[in-house]
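Handoff note, outgoing to incoming analyst
You'll be picking up this chain. Sequence as last confirmed:
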Amino acid sequence: MALRWLFTLLIGWASAAHAVEFRLPVEDTSEFSIDIALQQAVVRAAEQMTGIPSDELTADAPDLFSLSEAFVNSYGFEDEAFLVDIDVEGLKDRLESSGISVWEGPRPSFLMWVTEERGLERVMVGAEPHPVIDQVLEAGARFNIGISRPLMDLEDTLALSPAEIWGEFAGAVETASARYGSDHILVLGERPDRQMLRYWLYSTDGETVSGDVSGPTPSDRTEALIGRLMAYARAISEKQTERARDALTDRAIVPNQLPLDGEPLQLQIRFSDVIDLMALLDYLSTDTDGLKVATFSLAANQADVQVTTNLSLEAVDEILSSFEGIQFVSPLVYALN
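Most recent structure output, in case you need it:
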């Protein structure tokens, strides 16, 4: 029987904690590798401490986990499980010496609604198993983020429709979610035929962040989404404007996670005067290098502008911020005075 293990965090992360224990259930000790298990436990601990996927952690520090046993206080078998006691302070020092900061703030929680395109129809996804939902819920446990699902009972079915989600009616989403009392809402629109996954992130302060990730499989699309979701969660947790501005900046790490090599980028521009909006669009179309407006649509006092670029998000932000009268609101969201 192949080796199976599951990492279970037994002690919550806290600034005063110096160690944390992972329990790995073991079904077949004959195929069990202690070295692999220790490294996996340290990697999972680092992911939870930072909110950053392991492939991003090692992108600029490939030897980050080369001596994983140095961050282990003790390990051993107990009741058909392998216990690993992680040296949190030692691992924290290692991360910070590599230029990776630890997530100190409280972890936000999300209520997740999901809709899917099936041919020409868009439907709400209920309680049935779904690869995207399952992977996002697993990521919640992996990064110590609370992610819950609505009951999808009659009240939920009547309260929110796919048309309202894809039409980006924030009020409908917030009203339907009110019964669950969540401060943050994650809405997903899976488009398997187009190999795309659209996401919307709503918060009680009225801010919305949205975008698309692509990939050949649901797993690829969801993994790309998770990187963005964790960056957003950490940004709002730390409540720092500059952190929010940098949350999705180009670190050239994971394909499909960042807009590279001409991948379309979705911006939201809030405006009170359409003349100001058209002036901005004209400015972007004629006065900027490496940033081209592909399409835009209007709804009330908000414009969804799709641009193509090979620039980093930081560079795009600098271009937008150079336009007189525009203000940064949150990642990919701006407001015209």
